[in-house]
Design a protein that fits this description.
6-stranded antiparallel β-sheet, 10 strands, 33% helix
Length: 196
């Protein structure tokens, strides 16, 4: 039996709407899986490839996170959706797409696809993008508010991999869980940073 997530991955992006019933069902199932509850539908619980123990560069992930020094941060995302771009001994550097409004997320992902590495014929495996590439490019200014360092010891859940054929769907989901500010304020400041 196919899970809702797999069914949504096969849907056309034009069929998806921000906050739609299908999107919210997807969100609810995703959160249940990360928390390890037993309410996960059978089809989704069999998709073990979604739960991973480590990050692979160029892949997109979701997880619960409690940042170090959060008291001094103006705001932070408790449930980031991150494209890992550099590994360190104690964590990694990544692009948290939640810092962009929905339409900017999808546009930014579209620009990053030029760095795609093919896996199976005709399918994207991952993105080969680095911090140096992002800084050097005039077309990728959207990375500025998204670039964040994550410490492995502060991850508070299972790590959920989002498959490349699901990235456009995930970009439209209201998964962000900002603390210290609402989404509109975060996005407004992100757009100001991009336009500098």
């Amino acid at each position: 039996m196919e899970s809702k997530l797999t069914q949504l991955a096969n849907a056309r992006p034009a069929d998806m709407q921000i906050g739609s019933k299908k999107s919210l069902e997807w969100l609810s199932q995703k959160i249940a899986e990360l928390r390890g509850t037993s309410n996960i539908p059978a089809g989704m619980s069999r998709e073990r490839f979604r739960q991973v123990d480590s990050f692979r560069l160029g892949k997109l992930y979701c997880f619960y996170y409690d940042p170090k020094g959060k008291e001094s941060l103006p705001y932070y995302d408790r449930f980031p959706m991150v494209l890992a771009i550099e590994k360190y001994n104690d964590g990694f550097l990544g692009l948290n797409l939640h810092y962009l409004p929905f339409n900017y997320r999808l546009a930014f992902l579209g620009k990053l696809l030029k760095f795609a590495v093919q896996g199976e014929p005709g399918e994207i495996d991952r993105l080969r993008v680095t911090y140096d590439i992002l800084v050097a490019s005039r077309r990728l200014k959207e990375f500025r508010p998204c670039i964040k360092r994550y410490l492995a010891g502060h991850i508070q859940s299972k790590i959920l991999a989002i498959q490349p054929n699901e990235w456009d769907i995930a970009a439209f989901l209201p998964l962000q869980q900002f603390r210290g500010a609402n989404s509109e304020k975060v996005w407004q400041e992100s757009l100001e940073e991009i336009r500098k």
